[in-house]
Amino acid sequence: MKIIANAPMWFLLLGLTACLDGSSFTGLSTDICxxxxxxxxxxxxxxxDGEALPAVVSKPIEPILVEVTxxxxxxxxxxxxxxxxxxxxxxxxxxxxxxxxGACTYAIDGKAHPTLTFGDGTILTGTIDLSEIAxxxxxxxxxxxx
Length: 146
What we know:
This protein has 146 residues and is mostly beta strands. It has one helix spanning 9-13; strands at 41-48, 51-52, 55-56, 65-75, 80-91, 94-108, 114-118, 123-128, 132-137, 140-145. It has one domain (9-139): Lipocalin (Beta Barrel), CATH 2.40.128.
């Protein structure tokens, strides 16, 4: 899904959510986190491509203005995750709001690179540390913090 204009994949991402199992943490170096690492919990969307929320994600040539107003990712201990993203769309002066939610699974490799897999087969990758997750989709960087 892309949130841009036709808003497909992006909403799935917003949930930009990842998951991992305990064994995934053993390969992480101690400069990333103490052992065992704990990435579990709720991560709130802070910015998209460096722009604080609400962040415009539609292209200027499109007839609809799409702004992401909020989002979160919840990472669970069992490698499952969930996500939520809220947006507002403006078309011809009419404003509508929408919230998309979804489920995913995640893994984090030994170099702190999360991989989130969504039900539609979409896979997102990025970086993670104890305070921030950065995920990339369609060239946009979504940053989540605890």
